[in-house]
Amino acid sequence: VTVTSHDVARLAGVSQPTVSRALRADGQVSARTRARVHAAAEQLGYVPSERGRMLATRATRQIAVVANIDNALYPQLMAPLHATFLSHGWRTVLLAQRDDESVGDERLIDGSVDGAILTTTALGAKLPEQLRRRGVPFVELNRTAGTVESDRVLAHNEAGGRAAAELLAAGGHRRIAAIFGPTETSSSQEREAGFRAGLRDNGVRLTPDRTRRGWFSEPDGRRAMHDLLSTKTRPTAVFCVSDMVAAGAMNALAEHGLSAPDDIAVVGFDDLAIAGWPVLSLTTVRVDFAAMAARAAELLIARIADPDTPYVHDRFPVELVRRRSHGG
Amino acid sequence: VTVTSHDVARLAGVSQPTVSRALRADGQVSARTRARVHAAAEQLGYVPSERGRMLATRATRQIAVVANIDNALYPQLMAPLHATFLSHGWRTVLLAQRDDESVGDERLIDGSVDGAILTTTALGAKLPEQLRRRGVPFVELNRTAGTVESDRVLAHNEAGGRAAAELLAAGGHRRIAAIFGPTETSSSQEREAGFRAGLRDNGVRLTPDRTRRGWFSEPDGRRAMHDLLSTKTRPTAVFCVSDMVAAGAMNALAEHGLSAPDDIAVVGFDDLAIAGWPVLSLTTVRVDFAAMAARAAELLIARIADPDTPYVHDRFPVELVRRRSHGG
Question: Which of A189, A249, A264, B60 is in the most buried spot, having the most CB atoms within 10 Å?
Answer without folding.
Answer: A249
